[in-house]
Amino acid sequence: MRAEDGELTSKHQPLLVLSKIREILDAFSLTRPSMTLGELHQATGLPTSTVQRLVSNLVAQEFLDRTGDQIRIGVKMAFWAATATKGLDVLAVVTPVLKEIRDATGETASFFRVEQGYRVCVAIAETEHALRRNMYVGKIVPLPAGSAGRVLLAWNPDLTEQVLAGPIEPMTEGTVTDTAVLRELIHQAKADGYAITAGEREDSASGLAAPVFDSSADVIGALAISGPTLRMPLEQCEKWVDLLVGSAEQVTRTLGGRYPS
Questions:
Q1: Lowest mean pLDDT: which of 1-5, 28-32, 67-71, 217-221?
Q2: Which of 224, 233, 151, 149 lies closest to 198 in space, CA to CA?
Q3: Domain shared by 171 and 199, yes or no
Q4: Which end of the chain is more exposed for a tag (fewer CB within 10 A), N or C?
Q5: Is residue 98 part of a domain?
């Protein structure tokens, strides 16, 4: 073995350990925040002895916390993460994720926030298809119509009551104007963790959306995929749910956010 080969091997050796540590940390999610050693072994595929050894060291160094047989990400990690997320620009995090969604689906991906009782598009990655929905940064849309509005209302009960208290103006024949029906649809979106709509804001157009949360577990925006129903029938929207929800979870975690308990 040449000297430089030996040097290269010694330099890369610690990375093997780091990759295993990352596998353990990545096994946790907002929907599965705690696990046993056995569950970690199943989730990572690492040998049981390796999981036991690494978990013991990670607990000792406060990367993980352990209560009984339950292991979770250490509270100290939140302190370390605070320095990474402090001053983090939401749009700087969201924009590359929107491009990934657009490239994976071929359809327009957008990010909406609530502003003065409306939802506003604040970031977008446009489809390359000639046939597309009319969407752009700064576009203002009433909250009751469409998947993004439904998601933004689902985790904001005060705003929901404000919207349901007044008359709902139809944007298309498919706009839900019955407040009792809309209330049920909002509750369903919260139960599902996403919303799919068709023809509510524009005729022959579909959308699906998922929420993004901050560190206080408050909804701060909605990731959405939108396009013509011709290319986005219900079956196709359902196929993209995991992609969209996973992307929203990625943005939430990057921003140091957490899901409501």
A1: 1-5
A2: 233
A3: yes
A4: C
A5: yes
- Tell me which of 39, 55, 80 is where a domain ends: 80
* Angle between helices 241-254 and 90-105 in degrees, nearest 10: 160
Residue 238 CA to residue 244 CA, distance in Å, equals 10
- What is the CATH number for 49? 1.10.10.10
Last residue of a domain, one of 40, 63, 80: 80
Burial classification of residue 68, based on how many CB atoms lie within 10 Å of its CB (0-12 exposed, 13-18 middle, 19 or more buried): exposed
* pLDDT tens column, 63-98: 999 999 999 998 887 667 655 555 457 888 999 999
Residues 144 and 174 in one domain: yes
Helix, strand or coil, per DSSP, at residue 226: strand
Percent of the chain, pLDDT > 70?
Answer: 90
Phi, psi of 258 (to 5 degrees): -150, 155
In a domain, 6, yes or no: no
